[in-house]
Amino acid sequence: MTAEYQVNGNVAVITLNNPPVNGLGHSTRSAIVEGMKKALDDAAVKAIVITGAGKAFSGGADIKEFNSPKAMAEPTLHTVINVVEGSDKPVVAAIHTVCMGGGLELALGCHYRVATAGAQIALPEVKLGILPGAGGTQRLPRVLGLEMALNMIVSGTPVPSEKLAKTALFNEMIEGDLLAGALAFAGKIADARPLPRVRDIKVNYPNYEAFLQFSRNTVKAMSGPFPAPLKCVEAVAASITKKFDDGIKFERELFVELVQTTESKALRHAFFGERAASKIPDVPEDTPTRAIKSAAVIGAGTMGGGIAMNFANAGIPVQILEMKQEALDKGLATIRKNYENTMKKGKLTQEKFDQRVGLITGTLSYEGIGQADIVVEAVFEDMGVKEQVFKKLDEVMKPGAILASNTSTLDVDQIASFTKRPEDVVGTHFFSPANVMKLLEIVRGKKTAKDVLATTLALSKKIKKTGVVSGVCDGFIGNRMIEQYSRQAGFLLEEGCTPEQVDKAVEKFGFAMGPFRMGDLAGNDIGWYIRKRRYVEKPQISYSKTADLLCEMGRFGQKTGAGWYDYKPGDRKPYPSQLVNDMIIKHSADLGVERRKISDQEIVERLVFALANEGAYILEEGIAMRASDIDMVYLTGYGFPLHRGGPMFYADTVGLPNVVMAMDKYAKGRHGDAWKPAPLLAKLAAEGKGFNG
Ligand code: 3HC
Ligand code: NAI
């Protein structure tokens, strides 16, 4: 049973029991209605308490049921709430830990609500691209007032129950045992009549029209491509402008509209994608993890410093090892400066600053780091240097320590082979700036032990990263795919585009930054260095030499004051460069390519479908475990627009047969070899399926 029924004296207790968060799926909804019937039919029962077992009152509607017949099957959440609110025996919600979405809406349908302190109270639907669809937009303003309810509904942010203790949301805060307190409360109100109903409260707000207009303007400016926040305002407005039942009907219409939008589907995909990423089919969830109480980082450069900050931010002491005092001092000073900047922005207290800086120490000696539970290597990207470092780590690290490499392109299996304990070696590929970017690619070597993987995944959560497991291949998931994207960007320049045109088209699609602005920010010389190695190794792969010509002009990007764009001193704004555009045009002429006008649609399709096609290879080779893992890599590490759900999800929304058709068209152009559909893509398209089922 997903809800249990018990009678305690003359009070019936309905306990939601649908782990992990008592989601209000169809069977739970049915069980609540059944419980209500029993209680109403039993003359000995004078009052009813609804509560939740385990670690939640309720996390809300079961999101997995959305867009399936179960979501609409009777009893719907509306029906459940009507049964509760219409009950002629008082119903008390006993709230603890988590009370969100449909869970809060159910509580608002009860006649009374009691809660313990520390419960997270929220209507977080907006974060899933929808709005509260079971009366939340109509009832919450009636207990919290228009302004506070609107803020909660538009932001979706949880508020601790004790902060709402004095509002009409709660009748009593319970200290100690919740159920005992709720039963005692039920005893007190068992005979009180008439039963209070939230729907009967009137929302008052002087000059509400001006407030609502202000809210619409602000929310519109902040919600970007997402339609839900503005609809939330409209629904909340109805709580004051319409009669209760009309408001409910209006809310329902908006909910049904939003739940079908691609934006909402993309957000739900990301919600489940993030959670799925931490599951590895052959590594059971109860795999014991190794304790990580101390860490070491080798190399205090760009990445080493940021990686060390992650440990310190999570309260884990970390030592940074460098070869020379000067490099160490420079690295430690950069870390300090980063923290100081955060403090200046008011995002870090002096106390936290002292704590974090105090957790980071420097050393020049391997002897001192041997007892660390994990060591992350972030030295130069050179196999010879990695070999030296890993041989040394094998000598000095205690048994059971995890030996991680932050390599971005090198073979983790080869790195592991430099040690006598390859099972302890794993790739931890952080993204720059490592203290900011959410993504952590966890590279599973052939011999990486299961508990090492489980520990690294757990660590990624502890340091607030999205950990995604990748197999070993050149570039892992993210960089292997971006190579195809960059190739297309280069070809587009040769065929008629300017860097600005490509960037603008991609940014209009929703990317945080187009490929050329990104190149200027990261440094064009990094790609130049990689290409020199890669295309010598793989001469069969065609690529545009435009970026090499740019580097030969010394235009490495913002750091040299010039890249694909011109920059003015002290100004990061890119200005189109006549010099670069002339170079590009000349290069087309040298190649004998007649430049043509290229549409934004073609630009976006060529860049994004190139990603999805490489993603399909990665999936069928088993480098990624699931399509949503690839999407998580792109959403959290590469600025892919969240409302598009990631490259694989986006390809699904376009329809894989349409993707293949577009690819066939581009295959007839230059460099047609790039457009051969991966066998998995071709197969799924032929079967009318998507990457995500
Ligand atoms: N429906 C289905 N599954 C849910 C769920 C929900 N509403 N909320 C959480 N889960 C699942 C997660 O997918 C995860 O499953 P897994 O173990 O198989 O991966 C599991 O519950 C645990 O979730 P977390 O890892 O997130 O656990 P935490 O303890 O960190 O957080 C939580 C718990 C705060 C409840 C968090 O899961 C959360 O924010 N959930 C979403 C809440 C939400 O958005 N509710 C609104 C739903 S829409 C709605 O109610 C519509 C209504 O207005 C009609
Ligand atoms: P960096 O050049 O900024 O820093 C490397 C540091 O390692 C230098 O301070 C150097 O003195 C030190 N070092 C070199 N050999 C050493 C040794 N034997 N012992 C101790 N210290 C040594 O390089 P960066 O950018 O931090 O890169 C480090 C690693 O991270 C590389 O493997 C790189 O591929 C990877 N990476 C880099 C990213 C980036 O955006 N910079 C992103 C993701 C991964």
TrEMBL record:
It is found in: Peroxisome. GO terms for biological process: fatty acid metabolic process; lipid catabolic process. It catalyses: a (3S)-3-hydroxyacyl-CoA + NAD(+) = a 3-oxoacyl-CoA + NADH + H(+). The keyword Transmembrane does not apply. Residues 475-567, 603-689 form the 3-hydroxyacyl-CoA dehydrogenase C-terminal domain. Residues 295-470 form the 3-hydroxyacyl-CoA dehydrogenase NAD binding domain. The keyword Ribosomal protein does not apply. Pfam families: 3HCDH, 3HCDH_N, ECH_1. Keywords: Fatty acid metabolism, Isomerase, Lipid degradation, Lipid metabolism, Lyase, Multifunctional enzyme, NAD, Oxidoreductase, Peroxisome. It comes from the Bacteria. One of its GO terms (molecular function) is isomerase activity. Pathway: Lipid metabolism; fatty acid beta-oxidation. This is 3-hydroxyacyl-CoA dehydrogenase. It comes from Undibacterium terreum. The lineage of its organism: Bacteria, Pseudomonadati, Pseudomonadota, Betaproteobacteria, Burkholderiales.
